[in-house]
Amino acid sequence: MIPASRLAAYLKEQSLPLDKVELQIAALTLGAVLSVDKPAPRTDLFRYPVPLLSDDGACSLVDELAAEPYDLSPLFGGESAEARGALNDLHALVDSTNSRVGADWLGIYRVIGSKEQARLVKLAYRGAPSRAEFPLTESFAAGSNNSRVGLTGWGVVIDDITAWRDMGGSYYECDPKVKSEVCLPVLNEEGVVLGIIDAESSEAGFFTPERQVWLAALALVLASPLAGLPLVEEN
């Protein structure tokens, strides 16, 4: 169980005007997912399709897939039962959360690598294929919400991407169908960014407070499983 003080601190730090009781209930519900038996995992938890990237590497090219899938197994030193179980937990959390939220896209990323080579790596998601890694650099964060949240630990809620850009907000428009987004950090107890979650919708104003509660709960619940991943490439 996540202490109420930590829930309240997260809401304050992330400037999320959400109900603390509703957040506690959502966190308890998602936390239970980690302690129950789950269906058999997907055929391949370690590999997923990825789109080709644009020449400058900034955006993925919609509907143009790379010849080879992205392979997570090197991060874990192979396809061990422990790694498979950890990834299956993350997929179950994505499914449980999105059954309440109904986003067009929802994914979990983990910070991987040393400070000089740090990046976000996508570990589990539901939705269309998307890029696997986001560099954690100031230059990339200038146009990427994922990288910016991963670097700063401050989440972002965009109700209308068109309006956001008209007001000067930076945004890589890799998929014109995306109209709203929520990107939140996963933090450990010391406030270190372990990863992020990202949710997208083709509908402006989609992420109401009722939906944001479940996304915030996911970010809080993920602190333990992301910290405990059996990674061999982390520092």
From TrEMBL:
InterPro entries, sorted: GAF-like_dom_sf (IPR029016)
Protein name (database record): GAF domain-containing protein
